[in-house]
Give the backbone structure.
Amino acid sequence: MQRRNRAKVLAAARDEFGDKGFRDAKIDVIAAAAELTRGAVYSNFPSKRALYLAVLAADADAAPAPETTGAAPDTAAQALAALARGRLARLPLAADDHRGPVRLAAGLEQEIAAEEQLRTPFAQLQALTAIVVGLALEQTLRRREDRRMVRVAETALTLLQGAARLAVAAPGFGEPFTVVRACELLADADLGDTWAEPAFAAYAPTPRPVDEPWQPPTAVDALRGNAVTVPGDGLVLVLGLHRLEAFEHAVRAAPPGTPITAALVTADPHEAGMLARLVVTELATALHPIFPTLLPAGLRIVLDDDGALAAAAGVPSVSDMTEAGIRLAGGRVTARADGWGAAHAIAAAR
């Protein structure tokens, strides 16, 4: 019954938010449309914002992936063009009625700006998006050169985000094919992007040797959408939504090819957790045209809503500031680190 009620509330809320926008939507109207009481709505979603984010996350999960053109891109320019085309294809045309999905999503950034507790997670989620896209772009360069592409990814995503905002606020402005071409040209831009050892590395926690069994739960790789069992070799990171940049610290410090699974956790599953689900799902959709051949197969991101993977890694209590890591070998946990810099420390330890 709870699942049915939740589905009814989401459907009613989608209509109300899509028709009136977040600010003018009324919980009483949503409750009446779902044939439930106001209290029943709040028993499933503790706040109007939590309901709004849940609707956006559910829609992102149900959105069809962009069509692929066949073979995966051979160059960073081709990958950036595919990424741009996929994102721009979802934007409204000038003649579209700006209600429904467009009106529904239009208030997201305004709500994030208005809620201080969501701004840092959103910034970190955007950073994680740029890191993952950058790592995928770097795979196209392996045979020719070795350079960091995260700043190029950040710039392309900023351009595409601006195009998305203008498509709502100024429909008809700009030429989508020009935006695609601009993203393509970014592949050769010299943005001075080099990776340096983090300044905190000298003060990072020292990994502790342990010998413990590894009994992972089944999880879902949010980037690829498939169920996985985290293997008994490699690294598992438990990262709160304020510490997502630590994912790159581990990737850069670990030997190439090391399997790395990041479990994303939060103390606020209803709002920040739904925001994380929305952003990571949209990232997976955007990357579909260049998956699965570009992003290293051993890199995984798990939305650890119930904390099951974190608990298996020995982190039963989590917050948005959580940063912990374990090293696995032969199906055993062989080392642990926790605290600021733990992801880099556990990856760099030999």
Q: What stands out?
A: The chain has 14 helices and eight strands.
